[in-house]
Design goal:
It is a single chain. The protein has about 140 residues and is mainly α. The chain is about 55% helix and about 0% strand. The chain contains 3 helices and no strands. It is elongated and about 105 Å long.
């Protein structure tokens, strides 16, 4: 390797020297003592950590409240579905009861028919000819 060769050895003048007052600086700041340590993390990083922690806490509370709300919604949806099932069962039982009652008294029971209407709006109906226009009006009477 290149650093093992003699012609690549740096002269002593280029070597990094420790300043003479370095020992005095470490003694004054207390960095040499094991009990006291200087902060090694920049203040901007500490601020960022703090804001990120605050964001995490806010997100955790938001997810907890969202879970509670979602759970309540699921309960309400289930109750509504149960109500619909109960209503449909009641209607079926009423149909059977009315059919039996009509049969008992010698009458006929006619069940309800579904009510359905298709409504279509055609623009520019006035400009059409009479033969085209009349069937359209007949559908609406």
């Amino acid at each position: 390797m290149w650093w093992r060769h003699a012609h690549h050895v740096l002269p002593v003048s280029h070597m990094r020297r420790r300043p003479a007052n370095m020992e005095a600086e470490t003694a004054a700041t207390g960095a040499g003592k094991p009990g006291k340590r200087l902060p090694t993390v920049p203040e901007s990083v500490l601020k960022k950590r703090k804001t990120l922690q605050r964001i995490r806490e806010a997100r955790a509370t938001a997810t907890a409240t969202a879970k509670k709300v979602q759970k309540q919604k699921r309960k309400d949806i289930f109750k509504r579905a149960e109500k619909y099932v109960k209503e449909y069962r009641k209607n079926e039982r009423d149909e059977i009861r009315l059919r039996r009652e009509a049969k008992r008294y010698g009458n006929f029971y006619v069940p309800d028919e579904p009510k359905l209407a298709f409504i279509i709006r055609i623009r520019g109906c006035v400009l059409n000819g009479r033969t085209t226009r009349m069937p359209l009006y007949v559908g609406f009477w």
